[in-house]
Amino acid sequence: MNALTLPLPDVAAQTSRQALPLDWVGMHGVAVPVLIQGQQLSATADAGVSLDDSQARGIHMSRLYLALEMLETETLSPPLLRRILQQFLDSHEGLSQSAALTIRTEWLLRRPALVSPLSGWKRYPVSISAHLKNQMFHVELSVDVSYSSTCPCSAALARQLIQQQFVNDFANKALEHEDVRAWLGSAKGVVATPHSQRSTATLNVRLAKGVAELPLLFLIDEAEAALGTAVQTAVKRADEQAFALANGQNLMFCEDAARRLSLALRRSDDIVGLDVRVVHAESLHAHDAVAESRWGRDPS
Questions:
Q1: By CB neighbour count within 10 A (0-12 exposed, 13-18 middle, 19+ buried), where does 35 fall?
Q2: Angle subtended by helix axes 216-227 and 254-264, to nearest 10
Q3: Do the beta carbons of residue 35 and residue 76 sit within 8 Å?
Q4: Is the Cα dihedral 28, 33, 39, 41 positive or negative?
Q5: What is the rounded distance in angstroms from the CA atom of residue 258 to the CA atom of residue 295?
Q6: Which of 22, 73, 251, 279 falls between 20 and 30 A from 164, CA-CA?
């Protein structure tokens, strides 16, 4: 008999020499395309199931891989994720009781400038994790939002130095409106400026049962509105000036940013839990300033 006509061996179906169930078996970093609000994006997927049959040698990873093909043609949503996870389990009947899928990508949004008619693309790193066990299904959504943070302490210290310079320059002099206006607009007048830094908020939310769409745009819009200083794309000088004004009106420590975000996202019925982490990449120090906040409520 020709060896090529013999049945191919299925080693995974063999009995394990060491009987022990496993919590998760699968693949990390599978290249997949995903559709998010009409955009087809490059993504990676971590796909796996539990191996609850302690006698089984392994799972059928190719079955997981083939189930991921549903991502190619359908918009990424909680119902789609549940169908994929159910296919994971159906294809491993008798072996697995739970399934998990995590997708990572970067969503591109075109964002307008603050004042001018310019606009440009911003990227938002996104992670979507879904789990299914005993018909209990839940989805967690994570997105990174970049913003500028200006230190309230350095702003106060800068104002004090400007006040002192004003006293030095105008001591025992009659104040003329034009002289003061010119002084305020000169480098001599503004002797100090507060320090600011590019900062990142990572929002990890747990979605309520029955949510049909991923609230990505809502998360991003709410976060940027709460912070007030989202980083910009294409700008003109008028936009840069407006950005400087926004920073001056939104002084914040990392603690302030975490509280703003936590409170802003409590209003959504689609979100039953939040874990927010903000990182201010300090320009004064060689280390970062970090704050975290989390809350949850009954998903029912």
A1: middle
A2: 140
A3: yes
A4: positive
A5: 12
A6: 251
Distances from the Cα of 75 to the Cα of 12, 79, 203, angstroms: 33, 10, 22
**Helix 177-184 to helix 152-170 angle, to the nearest 10 degrees?**
140
Q: 232 in helix, strand or coil?
A: coil
pLDDT in tens, 212-245: 999 999 999 999 999 999 999 999 999 999 999 9
Backbone φ and ψ for 138, nearest 5 degrees, come out as -145, 155
Mind listing the pLDDT tens digit for each residue in 100-120? 999 999 999 999 999 999 999
Distance, CA of 278 to CA of 286 (rounded, Å)? 17
pLDDT-derived band at 19, boundaries 50, 70, 90 = confident
Helices (H), the chain: 61-67, 78-90, 152-170, 177-184, 216-227, 237-249, 254-264
Phi, psi of 220 (to 5 degrees): -65, -45
Contacts of 31 (CB under 8 A, 6+ apart): 42, 43, 44
Are 34 and 106 spatial neighbours (Cβ–Cβ below 8 Å)? no
Is residue 16 exposed (0-12), middle (13-18) or buried (19+ Cβ within 10 Å)? middle
Report the predicted TM-score, pTM, of the whole model to 2 decimal places. Answer: 0.89
Cβ atoms < 10 Å from Cβ of 126: 23
* Long-range residue pairs from 29-35, CB within 8 A, at least 24 positions apart, any chain: 30/65, 30/68, 32/68, 32/71, 32/72, 32/103, 33/71, 33/72, 34/71, 34/76, 34/103, 34/105, 35/71, 35/73, 35/74, 35/75, 35/76
The single-letter DSSP state of residue 56 is: B
Q: Per-residue pLDDT averaged across 32-51, rounded?
A: 96
